[in-house]
Write a structure and sequence with these properties.
The chain is mainly alpha-helical. It is built from five helices and two strands. Strands 1-2 form a two-stranded antiparallel ribbon.
Length: about 110
């Protein structure tokens, strides 16, 4: 299994180039990255650790990290649902750090 530090460095470079930053709370970030690796081991893909996966890649494709909800969440709230990916302003506490509501439609929870 890939190590968390390696995943962190790899994703950091790729995501920052797109304007997405890891939460400055490194402990929280590493917990989430560890959970992504556990899910990759479990399901074969890195599904969001903050949501319930079905184990069916097709059904879960909207929550494979980075999920399809990240962009609208970060645009509106400065953070994704899990607080893994955030905007620079969010990390610098220039915008309020508020609860990000679940955007995933309820029918996606039915397995």
């Amino acid at each position: 299994m890939m190590d968390v530090e390696k995943l962190y460095e790899m994703l950091k470079k790729a995501q920052e180039a797109q304007g997405y930053f890891f939460n400055k709370d490194r402990e929280r970030t590493f917990e989430l990255l560890e959970a992504l690796l556990v899910n990759k081991e479990r399901y074969g893909y890195m599904v969001c650790p903050c949501r319930l996966a079905s184990g069916d890649r097709e059904k879960d494709k909207d929550i494979i990290c980075p999920c399809v909800y990240r962009k609208p969440d970060v645009e509106e709230y400065g953070s994704c649902y899990c607080n893994l990916y955030v905007s620079r302003q969010w990390n610098e506490e220039k915008i309020p750090q508020v609860y990000v509501p679940e955007r995933r439609p309820p029918e996606k929870f039915e397995f």
